[in-house]
């Protein structure tokens, strides 16, 4: 069989197809140029706003700063950008450079007077403020400046990290060991249990059909800010026998959460933000407290924070004793 020697013809795109591709590429190019211009207007408007706020801060609230570095501190705070903002700015700069290298027309990227005339719209939209969801996101961020993180840090540094670690032959573990030997009992968990219910309310004496209050651990006195402060931990006995024993537990409620609950009921301290974000604050308190406890070596294995819903799906009050039994059995399974 003879092969054909006729040349293969490659058809070039028609003039109409070329015009469509050219029109599409021009539209994309124009869109990029416009986006870069708008971004430039927004960035310039933001710079002006930051400068004005710096001047107002310096004139009105200079007392919040030290005289020797007040102005520099204000400028640093005003013109510091977070990582996300830096990435966005760099992305537009790179996009502008790519476009400039492709067209060589830098004027198409510089905002004209017509664009700058829309700059007040940026400031106008800034006055709209953020949604309530932004409060939630801000609380969740790990900056340590929110109400929940502050309560957790104060609770950790002002109480738990003072009363629990072993210092001068005394600490939670030694007191629990002495208690077991003296009363001939066994603790279900070898650590302090901190209850953090979503209601944020824990009575002075726990209400449970499965627990009864026993003699507390030995009180320890620690010098703190010029005061010989007593630290005391309550003990509860489980009334249900498990594996032939009545187990005991060192338990307390998270006192900062109780104070927060009480502040929510007060007309002079509660704000709508606190009421609106109370569950966010509850969760962040638990997470930050757990982080502090487990990060610091002296408290890492001394506390068992338990976060839970105060009521079950049927609206019945959850029995703390059931939570302790479940937690104890889970610990036994892990150690088995």
UniProtKB/TrEMBL annotation:
Gene3D superfamilies: Stimulator of interferon genes protein. Residues 146-331 form the STING ligand-binding domain. InterPro entries: STING, STING_C_sf, STING_LBD, STING_TM. It is found in: Membrane. GO terms for biological process: activation of innate immune response; autophagosome assembly; innate immune response; positive regulation of macroautophagy; positive regulation of type I interferon production; reticulophagy. Its main location: membrane. It is a multi-pass membrane protein. Coiled coil: none annotated. One of its GO terms (molecular function) is cyclic-di-GMP binding. The keyword Transmembrane helix applies. Pfam families: STING_LBD (PF15009), STING_TM (PF23417). One of its GO terms (cellular component) is endoplasmic reticulum membrane. Residues 32-144 form the STING transmembrane domain. The chain crosses the membrane at residues 85-102, 108-125. Keywords: Membrane, Transmembrane, Transmembrane helix. This is Blast:Origin recognition complex subunit 6. It comes from Drosophila guanche.
